[in-house]
Amino acid sequence: MPNRPTGRGRAPARPTAAAALHSISAVTAVLLGLVAIGAMIHEPVLIPPLAATAALVHSAPTLPLAQPRSVIIGHLMGAAAGYAVLSVAGSSAWAAAVAAGATLALNTLARTPHSPAVASSVVVVLQTPAPARFIPLLFGSTVLLVLTGYAASRVRPKAPRYPAYWW
Q1: 119: containing domain
Q2: For the whole model, what pTM was predicted?
Q3: In this model, does residue 9 exceed pLDDT 70?
Q4: Which of 62, 100, 110, 117 has its CA 20 to 30 A from that of 81?
């Protein structure tokens, strides 16, 4: 009989206090940076999917979901799927669900797994932001998250190096 998961595995080890403080500080700092940028340009830059991305990049930097390719391309594909569905079906919860499914499919096919990107497509469909403003802000924000992940992993000597791969 093949080996099947039983759901009886162990949870990951608890991070050290220093590692937890490092992650919490890095995530909070980068999210405050996004808020400050948004305040300066009078645009909401911090959206929930980016907060989730920051948590992945700074707390689970070795996961495929946290790698630059998945973060940047994943969110851009999420926005593209969101705008495509929005143009065809309009803004509704039904359309947002379709956009989310389409984003997951695109990210899977492109080998860019990133669950927060699925939420970006939902934001596009439900909030209908102007693409000329939203896409550059989303792109810049994802690049900033990746760069801060890179920098933060070099500050703490025992931290896992981020990224595990660039592309």
Answers
A1: 19-155
A2: 0.91
A3: yes
A4: 62
